Amino acid sequence: MNAWACPNARCVYDKELRLGQRCPLCGEEAREFKFGELDVLWRQKWSYKKSLKEAERREKILETVKFCPKCGSANIYVLGFFRPSTWKCIDCGYEGAFILEDSNMAEKIRKRYQERKQG
């Protein structure tokens, strides 16, 4: 049994296509696969989908991480139950209500803080 499918392993479209039909996601023309080849392709597509989901999960976790605005460290905690809007950084001693949630900005701050600390 031969099947027609999108030959792009990095395309998440995994439904069967007809002869001459183009993939609706990546635009590649369907190619004929033997059953064994199709199994390998589907495994590659499944692995790629899994890696995309893992990347999304990591990104979601990073969105919930809080960073210190002074040194860029994620080693912070809420100062007290009675004042939940005040944060304290264990690494640099920062105390305040302002906090970062952007990991890219925190990385830049962390590099700049390390340069100042060394220099």
Would you give an account of this structure?
The chain is an alpha+beta fold and 119 residues long. It is built from 2 helices and 5 strands; from the N terminus they run ββαβββα. The protein folds into 2 domains: 2-60, no CATH class; 76-118, no CATH class. The strands form 2 sheets. It has a 3-stranded antiparallel β-sheet with strand order 3-4-5, with no helix packed on it. It has a two-stranded antiparallel sheet with strand order 1-2. β3 and β4 form a beta hairpin. The longest helix is centred in the middle third of the chain and has 30 residues, at 35-64. The mean pLDDT is 85.
- Count of extended strands: 5
- Quaternary structure annotation: single chain
Rg value: 24 Å
The total tally of domains equals 2
Identify low-pLDDT runs: none
Structural class: alpha+beta
The count of helical stretches stands at 2
Order of strands, main sheet, comes to 3-4-5
- Give the amount of beta strand, in percent: 5-15%
**Overall 3D form:** elongated
Helix content: 25-40%
Question: How would you sum up the major sheet?
Answer: 3 strands, antiparallel
On the 0-100 scale, what is the average pLDDT?
A: 85
**Straight-line distance between termini:** 69 Å
H/E topology pattern: EEHEEEH
